[in-house]
Amino acid sequence: MNMEAAALNATAVEATHWEPPMAPMDMPRQILERDGSARQGASASLGWMSRFASFLHLA
Amino acid sequence: MGEDGVRMSTGPVGSQARQDDVRRARLYRVIALGFSAVAATTATVLLLEAAVADGNDVWDYARASLIFLTTAWLSWGAAQALLGLPGRTRQPAVADIVMPQPRTVVLVPICNEDPVATFARIAAMDASLLASGVATDIAVLSDTRDEDAAAHERNTFVRLLEETSGHGRIFYRRRQDNRGRKAGNIEDFIRNSGAAYEFAVILDADSLMEGATIRRMIAQMQADPSLGLLQTLPKIVGAGSLFGRAMQFAASFFSPVFARGLARMQGDTGPFWGHNAIIRTEAFAQSCALPPLSGLPPFGGHILSHDYVEAALLARGGWSVQVDETIPGSFEEGPENVLSFAKRDRRWCQGNLQHIRLLTAPGLRAWSRFVFVQGIFAYIVSLLWGLFLLASIAATVMAPAPDYFPEPYQLFPVFPSDRTQQIIALGMGIVGLLVVPKLGILIQAIVTRRADGFGGGALAAASVLVELLLSSLMAPVMLMYQSKAVLQVLSGRDGGWPANQRGEGSLTLGQGLRAGLWISVFGAVALLGVWQIAPALVLWLMPVSLPMLAAPLLITYSSRDIFGGLFRTPEEDERGTVVATYRAIHARWTSATATTTSAAGDADAGEPANVAA
Questions:
Q1: Which ipTM was obtained for this model?
Q2: Options 3.40.50.1450, 3.90.550.10, 2.10.109.10, 3.40.50.2000; which CATH number does B104-290+320-338 get?
Q3: Which site among A20, A29, B330, B336 is 20 to 30 Å from B474 CA-CA?
């Protein structure tokens, strides 16, 4: 089968049987940031740095 | 849930062998850190001694601090290579897969890639897997947004299925939204299909792996139930330009030694480079669902350099993460010119700097935090070198004029002592940190006859020398690109996630000028400024300023196919490999496409289409 013939078939063939098998797995969302003041402190520092460096307007 | 509200997996209990590895890794870390501290302190002392002739001022202390940091970084890289020089004394026999074969899937996440090349690679790997007696599924995970490109993917996938008889074992799914980019794409698969598989091999669109390699990786995962992720060292293949071939040579000749040093230091807290690795699905599911970071990009939003974070989270969950540089048959393609490299580097820079936010993430192993610091420093260091040059110029300009008669009624003048010796020692030390590891690797390769695969000792030596020269010439250009990237990120500019540009090669002089003229102008202005205010420094700045002035030429001509005889690698002999199979399939598919296009053209002209079966 060549690409042109594949193109003719693709729309008809595309269906759920192309998809991987359904076998759900639990994937708990991880915690990477401390809540509260520590996070705010880090964000504030980076925000301050961004504002400080924003005058550069680098292309 | 563990302390601090951190979700902790019920990770495996460490074996005695694993605990021994951890103890050895700690020793290697102490050696490497000690070496870096001694080298950095020596450089700092030499600099301060050289500067003391005219009295140390604030600029001298500034550049002393900067030389400490930059030399520590160079020494750290050198220590990694030196630790990797001795070969592995314990080479455990690799067991074969324990039957029945564990359910394994090969994941190929793609986003706006050339589907013909990508699916031809999959066809080649599928043939290699079948030949190796490994039964795996393959899942193409598309994040392509463009509808025409997606249609092209579907058409090519039909061909892949037909050619491989892959119905029911080769899958394709396209997400409706590409939340979380590549990490989100993998996560989506594991959430929906992860329970069907014990292991998953994660690839990039340009990855190629031998079936026998995947078989070995599955066996290694089976042999160590505490192993959550096993990373291979992919070799670059298919490079054509001087820049690409130099990278290909470095990846094949130097990288195994650097990777061995890294493996020794990292122990079970090893790296994940995002592809050409195998994961234990259960471990990954337990540990690696990444949340978006609060705030906006570049520091907030989705985590760009997700692989480092996933490795850290697996280690946090009690899983072992290891790199094994001895696993053969793992390949990828590399950038062919400075522009492609810089574009990719811009994304990595933003991703690594984003890790500043994760340095205090709860529950991480101390070494994982240190790895984040290394990744951040890899980009910040360019800026530090630039600041060191500025501080050195300022220190020279601000230095007081020498006082030849410090005492009243002094009969003879007192000349300041000559400190050139310290400066030369400092310069030689820094060059040594860059050159000695590579020369050490060359000598080891000649002694162990590993150099035979690189065209023999003489050709390998010539390749190493030219690589050293080329990387020295390119260093100031890269320094400028990296400094620009760091400043862009620090100023809040989000570079997004541009599509990889694979296979682009030779650049015209016009393209080189557009890409590098700003570096030339910067170098010329800096050189003129120094010539005006401190002419004595002009000579010292030549190794940096001349490559900057020549940046457009370097960018252009390094993208061309020159010095073809050099940089030979064992991987260039592709006979009988999955790479050769891929090239044959790709050539057949592209020629069929060309034939079809031509036939379609004829059909448009009123001729019947000649569609070959």
A1: 0.75
A2: 3.90.550.10
A3: B330
